[in-house]
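INTERNAL AUDIT FORM
Audit reference: QA-55
Scope: verify that the stored structure record matches its stored sequence.
Auditor: D.O.
Record contents follow.
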Amino acid sequence: MNHLDVNQIKEIIPHRHPFLLVDYIEDYQAGKYAVGYKCVTYREDFFAGHFPQEPVMPGVLTVEALAQVGAVAILSQEENKGKIAYFGGIQKCKFRGKIRPGDKVRLETRIIKQKGPVGIGEAVASVDGKTVVSAELTFMIG
């Protein structure tokens, strides 16, 4: 297994606090897949307004976290080091549950297709083994 801590993640992708949404990578294979985690705390900035009476992590930020995990897989390839992965599209996105303070979110993105600088990843976020978000993410390397 290939582990990455937050400092090693920052060597691969350009995201920084407060927009770096991955705490560590449990395992990855360059160009194939990555599995990471986000440990959600009540101190996340977005909880101040989403929603004060029932704090829920915004779904779009969960999709972004999945994209960041996928970017680790793509940008760890030798030919992509130092580049940026941009969103090209989001397809088949389903929100199936809530992410709340205290949750440890498992983020898995598998690269299922790549041709040149464009590719597609199948992404699943889960909490306690239950899928909370799934999507097909298109990326472009720039």
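Auditor finding: record pair retrieved intact. The two ends are 28 Å apart (CA to CA).
Action required: none
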